[in-house]
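Predict structure. Chain length: 307.
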Amino acid sequence: MSAQARYLLLVSPLMEHSPAFERAAALAKAEGAALHILAFDYLEGLATAGLVNEQALEQMRLGYVERHHQWLEDQARPLRHLGLTVTTEVAWVENPLKELLIRLKEEPMALVIKALEHESLLSRLMFTSLDVHLLRECPVPLHFVSRVQHGLPRRIVAAVDPFHRDGRYEGLNDRILHEATKLATACDAEVEVVYAHDLSDLSTQEYGFGSGAGFFSSEAAKLLFAEQGQAFNDLAARNGIPPEQRHMILGSPAKVLASYADAYNIDVIVMGRVGHRGLSRLLGSTTESLLYKMPCSVWVVSPERFD
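Prediction complete.
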């Protein structure tokens, strides 16, 4: 008998109830998983207060952590009444990313769920948020919840790039489709597969093409389009995706995916990442930029091997 899967819901230190609670509970119930709710607390002013003796400071810290833990227990109580196995924890940690990555190695989780923290463009340019750090480094599937129309997703899109030529990411598209179909099965939802391709992208350089109208009218461009279509259909077919659920759309991946999600009322888009150096293709920079632009939640799949 296999062990019960465990999901981690990472929550804000601000004691705010987010849509991620509803999504985490619905997914855990559908998959029969246990749910661990974790908050990382650290108040710089309290941690470095120089006018308070160490004993009083420790009492203040413990009191704050206890109040937060009680708040989490209040959120967990109705979930337990639904039959879910729910545990809660508050940890006083200065570097939450480092602590989380250590925990994921020591206590494997099947999924990390977190509410997306919407920040200004200026803030994102000046500081790398925890969300982006997680996007780049989380070794397990990561679900960013931005809004929830339904507790369980009803419409799911898997975004793939079958023409990615870096051998380090071989099999990533199959993992994306596996995660998407597994999620759809658990939620009794529909899954569509989208390959948003841009013939003026870097892949054209691999074939010796330049940019401009001449490229798009050339026989070579038609050949590249046909090869991309064949690679996409082969990928979808071996993962059991029927033809009517495959969509190969010409255009910038970021724009195509955002428009598709908005037009078809998508609940979750499942994407992959290929590291955070030289982000220029769909499975890299598109995931990071779409994090704050998508009209739906995002499910991120990491490669099995990434150095």
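Summary: The beta strands are 6-11, 34-41, 86-92, 111-115, 142-145, 155-159, 190-197, 246-250, 268-272, 297-301.
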